[in-house]
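A student in our group prepared the protein record below, which I am reviewing. Here is the record exactly as it was handed to me.
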Amino acid sequence: MPRSRIIPPRPALLAAAIAACLPGVLRAQQPTPAGTAAPAPIAPDSTGCPRIGNIFVDNNSVFVVGDPGLDRRFTGLYRLANRLHSRTRESVIRRELLFREGQCYRPYLLEDSERILRSTGYLADADVFSVRQPNGTYDVIVETRDEWSTRIEASAGSGEVSGVELREDNLMGRGIRVAAFLREQQGERVYGARVGTPQLFGTHLDAEASLARTPIGIAAAERLAWPFRGEAAKWAGREALLRDERNFEYFVPQGDGLERRLFPVERTAFDLGVVRRLGRRGRLTLLGMTVAEERRGFTQNTLTP
């Protein structure tokens, strides 16, 4: 939860807060020349609320070297991991914030921004808090720590699905998700790739697309989503399209046992939905509508010869 603090917890943030506060403190200690009016603090806006001054972003890598919680014996390994990892860019973090410099200071927007940052797949932790300045504004500190984003995942099933996937969830520190996979399902091999981003063209559109090769054709999918951004957001929506060409597995009696057969199926699905929030913060009601369609095509008339 965001807090209003006097001293930030990290030296870099402490230096930033001191640098922002120091000019006002020094001016307050200097005598005002005769006939000169003392500078007045920045007044709240027309709504009566104070404003946000500066926003400082401290985007840490996976390991914060020097943190007392880390074993000092492995400092070299921590530094190596940080070099191999692409740190999340400050611009990516700033796009997720629900406030900007000069806007009205509302603590709940800091709380919602912190939750949004923590919900991303490329950040392990986030802390958003404020420091009140002598002129009445609030400087906001955003401190984040990255999640290790490169993974190799293997799966093994009992005759169902098995395979391996190589995934990067924070390509070049931009929050872009890319993956390549190889799976074996029902004795057939499927391979393909997937790419996605939570900030399509610098907006808050979450987009993902995938393409795979199946034994009888392709499997392609795309999705666009506009999520709720904080509890004050009123609208959310999504759109998805899928085309999947696969074999349907079935068994027919053959002699004293069963014979496995594969039947080609072409599946196409589409859905479009929108959700509206009603009510006030803490007591919200969701009202939504979705239109969906699914079609299946068969290249044979029956499942049996």
